[in-house]
Design a protein that fits this description.
Shape: globular
Largest sheet: 9 strands, mixed
Radius of gyration: 19 Å
Number of helices: 7
Strand content: 25-35%
Helix content: 25-40%
Bound molecules: 4'-deoxy-4'-aminopyridoxal-5'-phosphate
Distance between the termini: 22 Å
Order of helices and strands: EEHEEEHHEEEHEEEEHEHEEEHE
């Protein structure tokens, strides 16, 4: 099936959606993006929390003063139309806004901003997701809001994630856990983190320079619905070593149990009961099997 990318209002064949090698955002990381998932349901594909992702996309643009050439409504429509055009049942959706200008130099004044929407198949992000993954606490700290805005989903921010992830993989772990400059647990390279201790769910708050994840927010709301309290507070890294359960949460990573940190086995070294309960509920919701959170789904075909 031929696939297309929405590119500044037109559908372009997947292989033909290209830019110049000197493109500002390619050279300097000056783009902003989103990562959204669409899941199969009984009523066709449904996009999970589309409006929340759009809000964050436009907030990222605002933080970086990127003048968006399309409205939120136009990008919303483009995302739905791209899903329909590519006839995908499930997809990872990538809206991306960038300076599409090949003149060397940092100054963005007057530079053209382009927006694309791509849809790609993406099953599981981590190979051993179901059994749990191993993590290493990175020697690299998470970017701090005095240096770069962690709340914006900007391309350049991800150099921080990439170097931490590379270090973790180089030492045999599956993923990195980054701490804030203050030394508190922040998040994974592209995932928020939750730990379970004595029946409570604990996750770093925004003060730990995290990206405010939409999956994170969903989990807090799901847990509340299940009668599990979530505490947002600073977490010391040794608390991770001694917690009962630990998992990552993110659009791509979904809910990924963590079985070890720096070689310390977490709980019984396999997905714990609270992780499993929340995860089951999450997958019921994204697949449209739970009516309580039905407002989180945007059906592609009506
Ligand atoms: N933190 C970072 C750094 C991320 O890149 C992501 C993925 N977007 C997340 C957390 C999780 O956010 P979300 O649940 O909105 O995908």
């Amino acid at each position: 099936m031929k696939q297309y990318i929405w590119f500044d209002g037109e559908f372009v064949e997947f292989e033909k959606a290209k830019v110049h090698v000197l493109t500002h955002s390619l050279q300097y990381g000056s783009g902003i993006f989103e990562g959204i998932r669409a899941y199969q349901t009984d009523k066709g594909p449904a996009i999970f929390r589309l409006d929340d992702h759009l809000k964050r996309f436009f907030n990222s643009a605002k933080i970086y003063s990127i003048k968006m050439p399309f409205s939120e409504g136009e990008i919303r429509k483009a995302i739905i139309e791209t899903m329909i055009k590519n006839k995908l049942e499930e997809a990872y959706i990538r809206p991306f806004a960038f300076y599409n200008d090949a003149n060397i130099g940092l100054d963005v004044t007057g530079k053209k901003v382009s927006v694309i929407v791509a849809t790609v198949p993406l099953k599981t992000y981590f190979k051993n997701k179901d059994k749990g993954i191993s993590c290493k606490i990175s020697s690299w700290h998470r970017i701090n809001s005095l240096i770069l805005p962690p709340m914006a989903k900007a391309s350049g921010n991800y150099i921080n994630s990439i170097i931490a992830s590379l270090e973790a993989k180089g030492s045999g772990a599956d993923e990195a856990i980054l701490t804030s400059v203050e030394g508190y647990v922040a998040e994974g390279a592209a995932e928020n983190i939750f730990m379970v201790k004595d029946g409570l769910l604990i996750t770093p708050s925004r003060e730990a320079d995290i990206l405010l994840g939409i999956t994170r927010d969903s989990i807090i709301k799901i847990a509340e619905n299940l009668g599990i309290e979530t505490i947002e507070r600073n977490i010391h890294k040794e608390e991770l070593y001694t917690c009962d359960e630990l998992f990552f949460a993110g659009t791509a990573a979904e809910i990924t149990p963590i079985k070890s940190v720096d070689g310390r086995v977490i709980g019984e070294g396999k997905p714990g009961p609270i992780t499993k309960t929340i995860s089951d509920k999450y997958f019921d919701i994204v697949h449209g099997r739970d009516i309580l959170f039905k407002d989180w789904l945007t059906y592609v075909k009506n």
